[in-house]
Amino acid sequence: MTVDRGAKDVQARPAVFVGPHQLLRPLGEGGMGQVYLARSPGLRLLAVKVIRPEYAGDPQFQRRFQQEVESARRVTGFHTPPVVDAEPRGRQPWLATSYLPAPDLSEVITRFGTLSEAGSRALGAGLAEALAAIHAAGVVHRDLKPGNVLIARDGPRVIDFGISRAFDAVHLTRTGMVCGTAGYIAPERIVSASVADARADVFSLGCLLAYALTGRTPFGSGEPAEINRRVVYEEPELTAVPSALRSLVVSCLDKDPARRPTPTALLGALAPADPAMLLSPGLIADLDARERQAEIDLTAPPADPPALPVRTWQSLSRRGLFGLGAGLGAAAAVAVGVPLLLGRRAATEGNTKMVGKSANAWGAAAKVPSPLPAGPAPLWSSSVDGLMDIQTALLGSTPVCWAEGQGALGFNSSTGRRLWSQQRTQFFQAQAGELYGATGDFASLVRQDASGAAHSGPMPVPAAKRSGAAASIQALGADSRTVVLAYEPTLGGPGVVIGADLSGGQVLWRHDLTQDLAVDSARNSQSLLSGSGSSLGLVADGRCYYQDGGTIRAVDLRTGTARWRAAGVGPAASTTMRLLRTGSLLLAVHGNAVTALDPGSGRQRWTSPTAPQGVFGCALSAGRLLLSGALGSAYCLDTATGKGLWHSTVAVTTASTMGTDYRAPSAGTGFFAVPLVHLPSGVAVLNAADGAIRWVAHGTSTEGHWTTAASGTSLYAASATALHAFRVSGA
């Protein structure tokens, strides 16, 4: 029971608490959770956000949520309500901030009209000051929108700063889509998923200013995907913005983040700014009413105590948690009858701004044949039985289509005749010519070979942790005796890498990671995963090479004995690496660059130029490495020297919607194959020597996105309906 100081019948009504705080009534609902008005034991009003059950049970979310709460606590500023209490790791995670009885910006514009130039200056100055405080604490807001800006008597307040990063990370792994509000997401976040530094918030601020002045977002209305496409490829509509502020808004909305002003510069440009200019008679009356209600809420019992959502557990796909699905290559949309262009001339204005002169470090732009050659008819096409979220791999010379948790199909490479079907195994990864999976209870580890034979042995992950392993296991590779697995413990915490005996399942060695195994930034940003490999490490030369944050470690495959460690590879806390073994080098693809190491000593050989665009996939072909990424960009380097050889850009003019469902490229003899991301899908085949396009093959609008695998002169491309085989002549 609670003691209410202002009501006589409080004991007749049960109270609902989150932590020590009594919930009074719902305030709103968002993608991450429900928000309630609450009363603290010290009689302060709080806004308490209770996390949705489907995220509350995710260890990765809880860890990230805790990190973001700790960062948010460090934010101190007049325009940012403080975080006063939180329980980020409880059975029902929640966060409490001080409550401000004020409407959000969307309510203000809808009910009381657009702001004057002076009012918009006050709004912009307050937002800039809030962002300066948020960024100074090392936090990026990520979801600055009208609903996250409250308009109080003494100026605006920015809420929900930084916290959306935890939701963004987990939501991205489940859907492959960037989180945020269409019309306020910066273009670099749309094309590169989680690329979200302080400059992305400045773009959102520019959108808010345009909205406050005109009542419309600068990139129009409609379906979110269409709005996102305009953000990336078109210029904002700002004719209704007063000329005195137009140039400032334009600078905030520059598609090149480097050219946007800083919050400090915005403060200077918006001066003088008087918060009183935000207040209209209607808004003042609304604030008066809200403040009277707040006084009542401090003493009255809740009229109808809100019920918290029932906590449920939902299974998460391994692809969602570990990014083991089809790789994250890069391509652009291609519509029927609209040519696909490669090279400098094909870049859109926004693309050109973002790439800039830094592409010159990657050699000459690829040449474009005219007219663009159409792809040949497939040698054969075979049904894939409706597998969803399909992936393509080669087990030796056998093309295989598989889908996580749904089974796998093997085909004859010459005729397309189905050789075998395996539906009883929960496959989760293709690695080094084998499919890895598990039995339904995750008691046995299964390795599928090209013949269709399944080899199983005891699952080396402890039985008590298999429920978590089922959602976060990754195979780094194996030889004839030893397999290396990595998994995230059920109850959270850093991950574990183990070497185990293949025949008996005994754990031979175990290494605890210092960084989260969830590969947080790799999974939700420049995630260098391909459909046939692991992001965390690999097995070669009788050793296991794996990454732990920004450190790469080499250990003996059988004993786990350390051979060497290379620290500081890539960004300081990078977990975005993908390791590749080629020739006499170990390649670490990190962020937008590549570092080559001596596999025997860990000594650094070279580091490549930095790619101007975010990198999402990679493929090796005879001493050349292709990096494919945002806005259809492709960069090729010489693996012997790290020198950039050529670059190209896939760009189109199309009415199809923009997406971020990137698929990995693949490599054959003398060519790279880059899947196209939009519908109708297809694949572009490029010369490995100079990046020139050879041909483009298109699918139908009903096939879904293609994934590819290649070997020699053979290219296999699978869709939601069929596996197609092509011969790449002249390779």
Task: Tell me what you see in this structure.
Helix 7 runs antiparallel to helix 9 (243-252). Mean pLDDT is 77; it is low at 1-13, 169-177, 310-357, 518-533 and 651-661. Strand 32 (615-621) and strand 33 form a beta hairpin. The termini are far apart. Helices cover 21% and strands 30% of the residues. The chain folds into 2 domains: 10-299, Transferase(Phosphotransferase), domain 1; 319-727, Methylamine Dehydrogenase, Chain H, CATH 2.130.10.10. The strands form 10 sheets. A 6-stranded antiparallel sheet has the order 1-2-3-4-6-5. It is globular, with a radius of gyration of 27 Å. With 731 residues, it is of the alpha+beta class.
Key terms for this structure?
731 residues; six-stranded antiparallel beta sheet; globular; 2 domains; Transferase(Phosphotransferase), domain 1; 15 helices
Number of domains: 2
At the first level of CATH, the class of the largest domain is Mainly Beta
Strand segment count? 42
Strand fraction: 25-35%
Structural shape:
globular
Oligomer: single chain
**Total number of helical segments?**
15
Distance between the termini: 78 Å
CATH architectural name of the largest domain: 7 Propeller
What level of helicity do the residues show?
Answer: 10-25%
